[in-house]
Amino acid sequence: MRITKRTNIAVRLLMYCAAHQDRLVTKSEIAEVCNISENHLAQVINQLSQLNYLNTQRGRNGGMCLAKSAEQIRIGEVFRHVEGGLPLAECFADADNTCPLTKACRLRVALQDAAQAFYASLDEITLDALVCDNASLLRILQPVACTR
User: Fold this and answer.
1) Residue 133, domain extent
2) pLDDT in tens, 76-92
3) Does residue 148 belong to any structural domain of this protein?
């Protein structure tokens, strides 16, 4: 299974916010530290705020923070929400499916079972478990010092 760039960005963004729960973080600092384009990041921030994972505040002193505690955010849920209804394979796409084997294919069932097992294993992991007591990650997620 391949994870989309959007989901990868979403998890990095949430980890950054979890590592800095004591303050609002900015889009520009996340973009720099997590090596993400600000344009892609803005789209994901918008989606995560609509899904109630982030609180955002506009303006000069604006930024974002987690909308709920890191212990309450399950990674499987994040993946499901951000990935949305993306088909795992062509045979899962109603409109674009041109595969003549779909009605009799057992691989489709196996893939469906595998996807459910994948998400179930991620449901066991909280955002807090990814960040808490992870000194190496916390060092990486420190904002880059200004050299001016």
Assistant:
1) 5-140
2) 999 999 987 655 665 66
3) no
Q: What are phi and psi of 142, to 5 degrees?
A: -75, 135
Beta strand ranges found along the chain (DSSP E): 54-57, 63-66
- Does the residue 127 lie in any domain? yes
Phi, psi of 133 (to 5 degrees): 60, 25
* Residue 122 domain flag: yes
Write down the pTM of the prediction.
0.84
CA terminus-to-terminus distance, the chain: 44
| Predicted pLDDT at 101 | 75
In whole angstroms, what is the distance from residue 80 CA to residue 73 CA?
12
Backbone angles phi, psi at 64, to 5 degrees: -145, 160
Q: Say how many residues make up the chain.
A: 148
Count the Cβ atoms, other than its own, within 10 Å of residue 18: 23
- Give the model confidence (pLDDT) of 115-142 as tens digits: 888 889 999 999 999 999 998 898 888 8
The number of domains in the chain is 1
Q: With contact defined as beta carbons under 8 Å apart, do 16 and 34 qualify? A: yes
Residue 39: CATH number of its domain: 1.10.10.10
State how far the Cα of 26 lies from the Cα of 85, in Å rounded to an integer: 29
Q: Is 146 within a domain? A: no
